[in-house]
Structures are given as C-alpha cells and as structure tokens.
User: Which sequence fits this backbone?
C-alpha cells in the first residue's frame, strides 16, 4: 500500500533521514520504534510531504507522492495524527471534527461524527467544549477522531501514548486495534512505548540515526535481545515517568 | 523604591519622602519638556502669517498637576492613602463645580475659566477624570486597606472587574445587537444628530466597516496585515478615476472598485504566502507604502500629490442631492416634493455607509460557517495541522487577502465620493495602524468589539476635538489602558460556528 525507498530528508544542512526503506501492506498495523531524535517523526512527516523528501521514492497505491503538496496527499486517503496532537485549541470539539472532514464527502459527515463518537464517547459529551480546554487524553482522542473524519485508508500516528496515564495508554492502544480491524484502516504507528507498540503491531521497524536498523514481526522484535536491551528495559523504566503524566 | 521592596500597605513602613519628592520632581521636569512643546506655544493663523501665542499658565498647570499626581502615586504605593484621598477629594470638590460653572454662560463662567488650571475645556475635564480616579483608588485603599492597596500596586486595578464587565457585555451583546442596530438606523433622526455629529458618525461607521474588513484577514485568517490602507486607496482611486475620466456613477463603479482592490489583495498575497508574523507585517507595511508612493508619483494618472478633485456625489437611484437640478431633470427633494435641506445628503451618506458596513458584517458572519471561512480559522490556529487535513494554504490565504481587500475597496469608494477629493495624503501608514488598532483592541475576531473600539478610538477623539494636541496623547493612553486591562481585546471571545441541538441535528 505504501512503499518508501531510499528516502532522505534534510532540515537545512542537517540530514534527518539517511535512505529509509519502509513497506506497509494493506490492513496491517506497522510500528516504528526508536530512540528520541532517531527520525521517526520526520519519516511520518515526510510521507505527508512536509518536509519534502530530498531524494527517494514514496509510492502510495501505485502513485509517487514524494513531490505532491501536503494537502493533496491528504486527499489521497492518508491522515496523520501529528506529534503533540495539534488540535485547534480555540475551536470546539465538533468544529475540530468538521475540519477533519475537509476532504471527505459532505454526505457522510453525520454518519462519521456518529462513528467517532461511538469510538470515543467522551467526545460526545465534550462536543461544545473548546479543544484547548480538554485534558491530555481527551485531546489525543480528539486528534485521532479528527484524523478519522477524512475516512483515511492509511492512518499515521505519532506517539499517541505520549504523556498519558498508564490506564489510558492501554485504552488508546486497544482503540487503535479496533480502528484497524473494524474500519479497515491500515496503521503506521510511531511509538516510544515499545512494549505496547510491538505487542499490538503485526510488523515493526527499529530506527536509529535516521536509518532503519531492524525489521520483523512484532513478536520477533519483542524477543530480540538487542531490542530488549535498547528499548524495552529502558522503556520499562519509563513507565515511572508516565505515571506522572496527565489523564 | 520598587514594588518588590515596598512594605505591605496595611503596615506603613519607612516612607522615603525625599525619594518620593525626587520622583515627583522628575515627572514634573519631563512634563515641563513635553508641555513646552505641546501646549506652551500655540501657532495661530493670523491675517498675513503665523503668530506664536505663549501660554505659560497652561505649562505651569501641567507641571504642577504632574508633580502632585506623581507624589500622590508614591504615597499610594507606600501604603499611605489617607493624605492622597484627602487632597484629591478636595481637588475634585473644587474642580467639578468650577468646571460646571465655566460651561454655562455669563460673568461667573469667565471667572471660573480663569480659576481653572487649563484654558481648554476638555483638558480640564481630563484632569478632573484623573483626579477622580486617583481619589477613588486612594479612598478604596484607605477604606479597605491591604487588598485594594495590593491591587493598586499590581498595576492592573480591577482586572477581574474588567473581566466580569466584558463577559456581561458579551452576554448583553447578544440581546443588544437588535437594539444597537435600531439605534444606528434611527440615529440621524435623534434630536442631537446635527451636521457635525452625523459627520462623526459617518467617519466612525467607515472605520467600523474597515475594521470588519480587516478582521477577516487578521482576526479570522490570522494574517497580520499592516498595509490595509493600500486597498482602501485602490478602491478610492478606482472610483475617482472612473467617475472623473469616464463619467460613471458611484453605484456602477462600486463593484469595479471592489474587484480592483481584491486583485491588489491577491497580488500582495502571492509574495507573502510563506511569511508569518513579524515578517508578514513588515512586507505588508512595505506594500502599503509602495501603493502610496505609486499614487504620489504616477502623475499622468493619479495627478500625484495634487490628488483628484471634483469626484461626483452618489445619487439616490439617479436623483442627485442638489438645490436646483438642471433643466428637465429632478433632484431628490423635487421628486419627493420636499423642501431642500442640505442635511439630506449627509443622512443619505450615513445610510449608504451603514448599509455597506452591515453587509460586510453579514458576509463575515456567514462565511465563517462555510468551508473557506472555517479553513481560515484552522489556518490561523495551526497551519501545519491544517495542511495535513487537506486544506490548501495558498488558496485559503489568497481568498482572505482578496476578500478583506475588497471590502476596503468598497469603503475607499465611499470615502472618495463623500470627500469629493482624494490625495495620497489620506492613505498614510497611520491609517493602517488605526484600523489594526481597532481590530486588535476590539478583540481579534469579535464583531461587536470592533464597533466598540471604533467608537472609542475614532468617535471620542473627534468629539473631543478641542483637546487639540492632547488628542493623540489620549488616543495613545486609551490604547495603553485597554492593553493593560484587556490584553486580548475588549471583547476577546470566539463564538462557535456550529452547535448540536438535540440528537441527529448535526449540521455542516
Ligand atoms: N524542524 C526541525 N528543524 C531542524 N531539525 C529538526 C527539526 N525537526 C527535527 N529535527 C531534527 O531531526 C532529527 C530527527 O528528529 P525527529 O524526527 O523529531 O525524531 P524522533 O521523532 O524520532 O524523536 C533530530 O536530530 C532533530 O533534532
Ligand atoms: Mg518524534
């Protein structure tokens, strides 16, 4: 469904991606894990054309999208939940959802709102509240819901569990699985929380210094010693920090 | 003595009288410098030339007022409100009746006028207002001690009060809109609406319309535009040239002037698409100046600094407002069988600009609920997120620039037809700044806020024309006050564009 080959991305003189190859098949959940600054977010953003890839090919459903502007990529059926959620703080929940439906068929709107409200009932209660006044977890749900409003075929998620309480982290991952299964949405998931991500994902990539280090099924990587040492043990220590996160 | 080291007002600590005196002396000295230039020497137009008239007593009064005012503040800050309350209370008691008497006629008024500190009536009013505020603050601090005193020291007295007022005003605005509208419509028939008041009202409504137009660009789309007056100029010149060169009427030219201004807006939009914030502001500022300089130097077309005169007045469905229409034609009063009254034309102009402004307002309210309007707001909130949701930032920004400019163009045509004469001098940067101030002070994106701010910033200075040189000072002071009390604008508040009413009532 999505085939990235030899993707290189620069921020000015700094090279953030050094020839990344990633392949995602329809219906999969693919996880991307790696340390801070490895280039995970950059890969996700590059797929969306912001920033553009300096070289390499990104083929989505047999069409090279590497040189398309961001808003046209969105029209092709790729939606993104960006790092830090980036909901519209002064708009209400409902208006945020409306913005998510920018590229969707107008006739589907009511049905789609109903659908995301069923997925995240709390958003129905909060529909008139301004996005900026939601809690961290609610904002994350809103960001995912907003992305789903465009009826994407490929959903890119950047650290959906960041800053959430452990109970909510499990909830979010559960929902991601649900979206994948029930709504037939292919998912590319960037996570620091390697443990959860690898258990959920069908396949996964490990990234370091702007390049792919390892790849395999989620199970394989969970059992891989290198991965355990670098991301899981460290990741286990991280849950203490996460407990302090907001809800 | 700084705020950090000042003792709590409830327990007056050591008070450095010397320090306070020094501070007050400094303030008086600064005031001396300012007032010598501003009010000390007045240049009068006497027959055959200019003459300088000196007003030493006004300068002295200004210096004394500044000295006493600063001293009073120092006392207040040190937690000693009692003497301030007494002194300012006494001054109020003395000033207010004097002022009242001076406003009447007769010998007593003359005497009262000489006793007042300044020769200008409005300046005395200003002084009285300052003294009253001082007295109130001191009185409150005296009466209630620490809390009021602490608030006074925080530099933003009554910020919560202002918040509450603003939220009351917001809620009231919903019900007040029909009332305000009715008042605006009936305004020319109110007893006090003479020629001068109507002229001021026309000016205020023009700025309201400009504010609403700029609100689309700045408030909704979040694009800081410092050159808005350029589009006002384009509209004005488009109409003026069409009318004087080709003899076309106002109503025929109006759409064309709007289109021209919109084109200029789009033209400006292209190069600044990638710019944000400060950079955008600087480039738009430059663009505004560029248009003015072109108007100034393109002599063959615009007549340069001499401007264009003899711009025709608008007609009422083809009926002009003249006393004696040419043979075989009718004018407004002959057609309706009325007696000729010169004010009819002014009233008509008032209704024209009122209608144009209301259309601008309705347009903005509607477009906010359409996809393009929502895209403006989304782009303002977060451009990156908007793009990944499929919003085309280029087209969205260009429409904002274009539509905003179009309304400035309409207003410009109106300005040209009202004045009958335009020159580049009417379209200087300060105009852009004033319009932007109206939008920002009104509370970005707030339609009612724009009206309030326009009345405050345009109407009041016009009414207080006899403040003369103090007008700009008052203008600046108003801005500073609003910015300290309401940093996000008088009525900063965003109305949601959709609501769910009951189940299944989701509308787009
Ligand atoms: N906007 C930017 N400008 C310059 N450098 C950036 C920018 N965003 C990310 N980088 C750099 O690119 C590298 C990869 O960052 P990122 O993709 O955010 O990593 P990750 O998401 O894996 O933590 C880092 O070294 C980071 O400093
Ligand atoms: Mg990241």
Assistant:
């Amino acid at each position: 469904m999505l085939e990235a080959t030899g993707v290189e991305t620069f921020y000015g003189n700094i090279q953030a991606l050094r020839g990344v190859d990633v392949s995602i098949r329809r219906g999969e959940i693919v996880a991307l894990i790696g340390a801070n600054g490895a280039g995970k977010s950059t890969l996700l953003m590059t797929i969306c054309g912001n920033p553009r890839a300096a070289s390499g090919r990104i083929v989505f459903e047999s069409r090279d999208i590497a040189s398309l502007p961001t808003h046209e990529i969105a029209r092709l059926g790729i939606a993104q939940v960006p790092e830090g959620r980036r909901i519209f703080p002064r708009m209400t929940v409902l208006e945020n959802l409306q913005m998510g439906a920018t590229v969707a068929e107008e006739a589907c709107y009511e049905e789609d709102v109903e659908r995301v409200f069923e997925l995240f009932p709390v958003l129905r209660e909060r529909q008139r509240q301004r996005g900026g006044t939601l809690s961290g977890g609610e904002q994350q749900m809103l960001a995912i819901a907003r992305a789903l409003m465009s009826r994407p075929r490929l959903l890119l998620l950047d650290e959906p569990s960041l800053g959430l309480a452990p109970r909510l982290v499990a909830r979010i991952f559960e929902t991601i699985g649900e979206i994948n299964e029930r709504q037939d949405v292919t998912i590319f998931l960037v996570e620091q929380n390697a443990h959860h991500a690898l258990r959920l994902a069908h396949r996964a990539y490990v990234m370091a210094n702007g390049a792919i280090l390892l790849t395999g099924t989620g199970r394989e990587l969970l059992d891989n010693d290198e991965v355990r040492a670098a991301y899981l043990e460290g990741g286990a220590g991280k849950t203490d920090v996460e407990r302090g996160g907001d809800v | 003595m700084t705020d950090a080291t000042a003792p709590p007002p409830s327990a007056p600590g050591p008070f450095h009288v010397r320090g306070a005196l020094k501070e007050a002396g400094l303030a008086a000295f600064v005031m001396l410098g300012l007032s010598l230039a501003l009010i000390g020497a007045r240049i009068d137009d006497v027959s055959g030339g200019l003459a300088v008239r000196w007003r030493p007593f006004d300068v002295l009064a200004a210096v004394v007022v500044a000295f006493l005012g600063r001293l009073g503040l120092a006392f207040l800050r040190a937690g000693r409100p009692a003497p301030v309350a007494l002194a300012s209370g006494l001054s109020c008691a003395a000033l207010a009746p004097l002022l009242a008497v001076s406003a009447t006629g007769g010998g007593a008024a003359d005497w009262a006028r000489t006793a007042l500190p300044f020769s200008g009536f409005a300046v005395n009013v200003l002084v009285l207002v300052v003294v009253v505020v001082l007295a109130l603050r001191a009185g409150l601090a005296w009466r209630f001690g620490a809390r009021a005193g602490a608030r006074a020291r925080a530099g933003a007295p009554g910020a919560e009060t202002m918040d509450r007022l603003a939220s009351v005003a917001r809620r009231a605005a919903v019900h007040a809109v029909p009332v305000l509208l009715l008042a605006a419509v009936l305004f020319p028939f109110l007893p006090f609406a003479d020629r001068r008041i109507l002229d001021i009202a026309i000016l205020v409504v023009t700025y309201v319309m400009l504010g609403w137009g700029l609100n689309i660009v700045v408030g909704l789309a979040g694009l800081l535009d410092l050159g808005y007056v350029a589009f006002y100029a384009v509209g004005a010149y488009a109409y003026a040239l069409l009318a004087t060169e080709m003899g076309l009427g106002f109503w025929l030219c109006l759409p064309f002037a709007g289109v021209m201004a919109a084109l200029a807006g789009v033209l400006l939009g292209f190069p600044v698409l990638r710019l944000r914030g400060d950079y955008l502001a600087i480039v738009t500022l430059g663009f505004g100046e560029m248009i003015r300089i072109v108007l100034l130097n393109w002599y063959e077309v615009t007549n340069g600094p001499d401007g264009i005169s003899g711009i025709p007045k608008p007609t009422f469905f083809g009926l002009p407002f003249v006393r004696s229409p040419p043979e075989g034609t009718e004018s407004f009063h002959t057609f309706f069988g009325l007696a000729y009254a010169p004010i009819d034309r002014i009233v008509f102009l008032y209704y024209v600009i009122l209608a144009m402004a209301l259309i601008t307002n309705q347009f903005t309210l509607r477009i906010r609920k359409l996809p393009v309007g929502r895209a403006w707001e989304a782009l303002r909130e977060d451009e990156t997120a908007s793009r990944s949701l499929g919003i085309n930032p280029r087209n969205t920004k260009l429409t904002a620039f274009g539509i905003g400019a179009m309304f400035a163009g309409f207003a410009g045509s109106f300005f040209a037809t009202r004045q009958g004469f335009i020159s580049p001098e009417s379209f200087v940067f300060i105009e852009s700044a004033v319009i932007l101030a109206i939008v920002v002070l009104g509370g970005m994106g707030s339609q009612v806020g724009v009206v309030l701010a326009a009345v405050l910033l345009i109407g009041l200075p016009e009414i207080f024309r006899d403040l003369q040189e103090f007008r700009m000072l008052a203008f600046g002071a108003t801005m500073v006050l609003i910015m300290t009390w309401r940093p996000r604008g008088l009525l900063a508040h965003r109305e949601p564009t959709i609501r769910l009413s009951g189940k299944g009532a989701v509308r787009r």
Observations:
- The two ends of chain A are 35 Å apart (CA to CA).
